[in-house]
Amino acid sequence: MTEKKIDDVILFPVKSDGIGNVIVGENDHLLRRFGQLELITLTEKQPKLSLFRKRADEIFFVLSGEVQVSGEDMRSKSPSFGAGMAWTLKAQDSLGLLIPFGVKIDFTAQQESQILRLSTHEDGFDEEDSKEFI
Predict the structure, then answer these.
(1) Is 2 exposed, middle or buried (0-12, 13-18, 19+ CB in 10 A)?
(2) CB 3.0 to 4.6 Å from 114: which of 9, 35, 63, 100, for a disulfide?
(3) Nearest partner of 41 among 69, 63, 17, judged by Cα
(4) How far apart are CA 77 and CA 97, in angstroms?
């Protein structure tokens, strides 16, 4: 895996309107529709989650704790094919991470952590989709 920017991956701040946090708004143009919303909890017994979506974009938010995230571009026609990136996401940083279809992503937590996952399609939409706790 080559360490360089993966095309279409976006790390963005959550906006506050003074009352609450606006996670994704219509004008953000990140996702046009949502097919699945999931709350994932990583624990000492299940500290790692590996995801691959062939045709679904996803947005992730760390709600509690801290996770290490690594991604690899598996899209053979992408200019960044084979590239890898890594991030540490902390709940207090209020960041969202957009992962486009075709990018394999791994989450690892050293402590119990919760991740909110929004997806354009339900799990299993494509037969090549995979989701595995390790």
Answers:
(1) exposed
(2) 63
(3) 63
(4) 22
pTM of the model: 0.80
d(CA 125, CA 123): 6
pLDDT (tens digit per residue) in 28-71: 555 556 778 888 999 988 899 999 999 889 999 999 999 999 99
User: Could you tell me the two tokens for 52?
Assistant: 């691959």
